[in-house]
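quick one before i forget lol
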Amino acid sequence: MSLHASGGPEQVAWLIDHTLLKAEATAADIDRLCDEASGAGFYAVCVNPVFVARAARRLRQSPVVVCTVAGFPLGAVRTELKALEARRAIEDGAGEVDMVIHVGALKAGETSAVRGDIAAVVEACRRGAARCKVILETALLDEAQILAGCRAAVDAGADFVKTSTGFGPSGARAEDVALMARAVREAGLGVKAAGGIRTYAQFCEMVAAGATRVGTSAGLRILEEARGGTVPSR
């Protein structure tokens, strides 16, 4: 994807979820993240649930959406707790919830259980007028399992499928994004690429493969590269 094809830096920014999910993140870090997102015109910030209310207050005069996570990062959480996480986060001001599937259940072929797990979080999101993104953790899956996860997300009524938590063995790969995009395109779901995306070249690779949103902690660097400016060392 060229800069011209992307519609310019503003369109690049609008595809980014500016993300900070590290365990050591402080309240001051979250304030900075929100201010960066508002200034850059990013679509959303993605923060852990404990910071949702703070982020929502910080962004109350901004169009930036507050996104959070449920069942994060392993997905090995009881379904009712994932749904409760989602409900509480939405009450605190989240407009999107990225939930992690039960990866072990998917790998074992228990697709009905995976679908039910997703559906419970989708229902909580629908009641709160929020979007639900489904994290598959593609680095742990083969192609057939990725497709099965995408079908479960479609059947459960999710809004997006997402590659990775960023805490798995590896992050987003263009070939997985392309596979997911083909699998959910007809149903109208988005595809979020996340995990290890730190440069504009990687961003472009993911969008060209079919990503409609990109989660990254390097949004400012990517935007600066998109503008053709100098990227400070970090």
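fyi The beta strands are 16-20, 44-47, 65-70, 96-100, 131-135, 160-162, 190-194, 213-216.
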